[in-house]
Amino acid sequence: LSDNVDMFWSKEFWPLNSPDLNPLDYFVWSVIERVTNKSRHPNVT
C-alpha cells in the first residue's frame, strides 16, 4: 500500500489506543449530522 499511496502511514506510526483513530466516531457523527439536519432549526439570535 505504501508503494501506491503517497501519504500512507503504517499502523506502526500511530500510538496504540489512540483516541483520534476510532473510525466508529466518524460514522456516528455523520449519522447524527444527517438526522439532525433533516429539518430546519429555529434561529436563536
Task: Characterise the protein shown here.
- One of its GO terms (molecular function) is nucleic acid binding.
- This is Transposable element Tc3 transposase.
- By secondary structure, this protein is mostly helical.
- Helix content is 31%, strand content 0%.
- The chain has 1 helix and no strands.
- The chain is elongated and about 50 Å long.
- It starts with 22 loop residues before the first helix and ends in a 9-residue tail after the last helix.
- The mean pLDDT is 74.
Morphology: elongated
Largest sheet descriptor: none
- Pattern of helices and strands: H
Helix content: 25-40%
What is the rounded distance between the termini?
50 Å
Structural class: mainly alpha
In round numbers, the mean pLDDT is 74
What is the rounded Rg? 18 Å
Oligomer: single chain
Quantity of strands, as a count: 0
Low-confidence stretches: none
Number of helices: 1
User: What is the percentage of strand-forming residues?
Assistant: under 5%
Characteristic terms for this protein:
1 helix; mainly alpha; 45 residues; Transposable element Tc3 transposase; single chain
Set down the secondary structure blueprint.
Blueprint: H1 23-36
GO molecular function: nucleic acid binding
Protein name: Transposable element Tc3 transposase
Summary?
The chain is an all-alpha fold and 45 residues long.
